[in-house]
């Protein structure tokens, strides 16, 4: 009904406007006709009596003139007639001739209207009606004799106009009614058709979820259906798990055993989860600042297996065996860390060069120009090959489950596929995927896409990035896209493209180990020298230009400018782990951040008070969690971010249900964490208002928001993220095994039975 009203109301308004326009037009035209008609009638009436009139006038026979005028004015619409001499003096008139229209007035008007002695006419009000005045000139051989003035009653014109308007209104009302009925009927019928079609397709989808041939359907239903399919398959997998509720390490292990029985799990990620360093002669283990590691480590702890990574720590070689392996976590080993050694030149080209000066800025809309060098790409290709060798060395059988992580390894999936054709390769891209136009900047775009399409499943955080990837394939590769199944078939092998929003472990081990919130607050306040009634905001990041750290500090400055009540009271602590420091853009960022912090501190600092505390060093998770728990707010201001796990960690840290998350709209996390205060980090007015609102937020509202956020993150935790990928991979593997057992070729839908994966 609402939809019908939405169409009908504007339609009626439109018809009303047309009716009004038409009535104005009709009125205008009718008036012109009446005017012409009346003037013609006057001329005709005078011309019949012209000879007699002219003679009588020439002779000055007033009585005869009056009599002839009486003849001329016999028409019922004529109110009166008068004969006037050339100077505008009355010669004679009929008895009812209206007084206001004396000869002088008519002559003045006629002279103004025409240079030559021709008939002229005009309209004028007369009492409650209007009259039409016509002056018809008279002349004989001797010269001009004056003119005859005729006054026509025009009240009938108004009556006609009224009637015409009424008629038009009725006509348009009938048209509007007919249009409304037609629209309603059309909407009804097409709605019925649509819902019948939708029901048919949904039924078919429900009865054959998974890889069977999808029912044929209209194009416009396809996006809706792929969502329904995803939901159905998710529900089905929850059901087949035999349990609903929270995902946990145990449930993940269970899902792996159930869906991928006997499989070994090999993870490939450039960044290692434990970095061995030697400081002051003492061997130490560092946990790197990396969202990828934060998310993945608990998963691998749960599944066991092998994590292959670049051995980047100065003391890494000291602790491995002769195969470059070490069991981790160091205090309670659960899986194997296999280190790959890279030369300085390889690291330069592959990691700093192509990965972080090329792909990283290419994929993030953060206004840093990507740099592409042929040498870097060659090093990238070689490094990917080196990791492919390591995968083959670590694999105990022909069909391992390989989890390839992030933009450092775009070429790796195809390299593995070529050497282990039966492997199940799940690739996850932890950063955004750009739109296809932007992706076109990369000179090796097609090779990158082909490399990634060696995967069985390719995951992104959000659907928008899946769509961007599909568009890129569409634009730069000769491959078959199945938008309904969200897959790409290249060389007979299918890759599913899916959104799997990443998360953190729950309960988060660092939160579980941290002291209670009041103790953390006490300790952090003491470290920062803050008064007990001070207000504290925190930012926790790698020092990276995608994180919007400059914009964040500027928002703090704007807050202090606009809201003086926070001056001297609000401190913002930015924990910034130095990152990729050999790259000039990162060095520049470091300088800029320092400069902004210095300026704001100079402007608003007083005595011991510094509004911004910049802590530029690596902080281990216990310190980070202490700051999360001590803070009144946490501001995540990324300019563009695949997900951003700092936001989720802050939520996990706040078991006291206090503190406010201020979150950039340009993070994947903002799509999930709607109870945060969402801001555009470029808009300093909005951001500073959100900071002020966070600082003034009543405890009850903080609790309500934080409780909702915690419920979400606990449910959509990282075990679920990994579990869903593994279940999908298990289903694919089962399908391939079934199709592999069938001896007659059965590929009813091209690509459906796909190659091995
Ligand atoms: C991002 C990337 C990760 C990377 C992390 C830290 O989160 O997606 O792959 O590990 O940044 O960067 P780094 O260069 O120190 O590994």
Task: Please provide a written account of the structure.
The protein folds into 4 domains: 1-32 and 158-211 and 225-239; 49-153, Beta-Lactamase, CATH 3.30.450.20; 251-499, Glycogen Phosphorylase B (Rossmann fold, 3-Layer(aba) Sandwich), CATH 3.40.50; 524-716, 3-Layer(aba) Sandwich (Rossmann fold). The protein is elongated and about 140 Å long. It has 23 helices and 23 strands. The model is unreliable at 741-757 (pLDDT under 50). Helix 1 (2-59) runs antiparallel to helix 2, helix 1 runs antiparallel to helix 4 (155-207) and helix 6 packs parallel to helix 23 (718-741). It has 757 residues and is an alpha/beta fold. Helix content is 50%, strand content 17%. The structure holds 6-O-phosphono-alpha-D-glucopyranose. Residues 271, 290-292, 406, 430-431, 542, 579-580 line the site of 6-O-phosphono-alpha-D-glucopyranose (G6P).
> What structural class is derived from the secondary structure elements?
alpha/beta
Share in β-strands = 15-25%
Radius of gyration: 43 Å
- At the first level of CATH, the class of the largest domain is Alpha Beta
How many helices does DSSP assign?
Answer: 23
Runs in which pLDDT lies below 50 for 5 or more consecutive residues are 741-757
The number of E-state strands comes to 23
CATH topology of the largest domain: Rossmann fold
Strand order of the largest sheet: 10-11-9-6-12-13-14-17-16-15
- Bound molecule types: 6-O-phosphono-alpha-D-glucopyranose
GO molecular function: alpha,alpha-trehalose-phosphate synthase (UDP-forming) activity
Keywords: Glycosyltransferase, Membrane, Transferase, Transmembrane, Transmembrane helix
Enzyme class: transferase
EC number: 2.4.1.15
